[in-house]
Amino acid sequence: MPTRNPGPIEQRQRRDKLRLALLVLGGLVSATAACSPPEHVPVRAVVLISCDTLRADRLGMYGYERDTSPNLDAFAKHGVRFERAYATAPHTNPALSSLLTSRLPDEIGVAGGNRTLMPASIETLPEWLGEAGIESAAIVSNWALRRAGAHQGDVGVSQGFAHFDDDMGSEAGLRAGHFERLADATTDAAIRWLDANAAGEERFFLWVHYQDPHGPYTPPASQLGRYESTPQPGLLPRLGTTQEGFGQIPHYQILEGRREPGWYRDRYDEEIRFFDQEVGRLLRGLDERGVFADSLVIFTADHGESLGEHNYWFTHEANLYDEEVRVPLVVRAPEGVPLASASELVSHLDVAPTVLHALGLPARPARGSSLLTGDLPDDRIVPHSLHPEDSPLRWFAITDARYRLVLPRSGPQLFDYRNDPEELRDLAADEPDRVESMIDRYRAFAAKIPAPPRVEVVELDVDDDTRAALEALGYLPPDEDDEAANDTGDPRP
Predict the structure, then answer these.
(1) Phi (first) and psi of residue 275, to 5 degrees
(2) Phi and psi for 91 in degrees, rounded to 5?
(3) Residue 373: phi, psi to the nearest 5?
(4) Of the candidates 223, 418, 424, 452, which lies 20 to 30 Å from 286 by C-alpha distance?
(5) pTM of the model
(6) Structure confidence at residue 154 (pLDDT)
(7) pLDDT digits (tens, 9 = 90+) for 336-377
(8) Eight-state DSSP code of residue 29
């Protein structure tokens, strides 16, 4: 029987119901019980490599025509390249906090973005490893991930790490005028740690986070000019005076006064090529030091980037469309260790359970599941959020194996990812039952265990250096009044 299109009153009633559901979704958040992993011989170590602001579809392994990622493409041949992997949020600190806890941003006090930190009450993967006597180390290169001041205690993503290298004070490793460590200096730091700590049979967990290709897109001279797009006719985005990317190029992204989208995309690709060069050096370093063969190596990104889709230009932290929350994910395990199928829907929420499983440790309550299995739960969904629950700019989204439900405050949008990967045809009005079904599936997912106590939000201390860094990276507007006036949360192209 054909589906009846609802009338205007019924449509409004459904829309009001969905808006109410959106308001309370965050209050239902809770951890789901982790499945007991099948037994296998634990790996020696786990190396997690993450990259900032890297879209999956700009890598050769995901079908990109440019040679941006020869080293990563070669690495992916030795593991499982998951076709559809997702972050929980389109900004660094919330996304990576979720990765290290298998919890959603609303649960762990980081829904506010890069200016909020996980409180000490939240248990993290490095803390679980430490309890088992396994050393953990992190090399990070984004200012938003730096260790908090001593007066704030052990908060943020640094919790539990025995070694946390957030040194961004070396001029040789800094991009002029910006607050980040470049890819070559990041690899150098990781190799130094390996040389000092990776000898022998001791198990360890090493996380290396690269900042490139986060904007501004300024690749080193060795890569500049590698790619040149043919100019395309059409309207050009305006040069913005705020950090917002809707309908304009954000202020922090503007280079040389240029407005041509192709020129910026070329520079973005060149930064990816530079990162790939350096991650290749790290992978070779792991192999040369005898670490690669018997270790689990995971590669992913914190989130993606809008490059003009839906009229969002060179930005993240802006929406929950696919281009901002889909990420690359490759898992390489030693021979004999089973892995999930590449076609499975997976998430950052699966990383912490996978690491515990690999190191032979008991599972913890988690939203995700170990990927070291061929039997992931059926009918999986992945939630995503942007801004706190009580914010007028709040977005929420739910992804399943085929559909994506995006819920800005302006109303639901439903996309058939299989037939419309660019998310251009909104099916919400035609398929209201599917919209409600996806929300019901999220409710069931969230209600498997009672919601945890709400955590106290820890605000990032913003001194002069931090303010300058956050402005340079687009995390803090040059004028907050302008930001409030320009950010309407309107998703329309």
Answers:
(1) -60, -45
(2) -145, 160
(3) -160, 155
(4) 223
(5) 0.87
(6) 85
(7) 898 999 999 999 999 999 999 999 999 999 999 999 987 788
(8) -
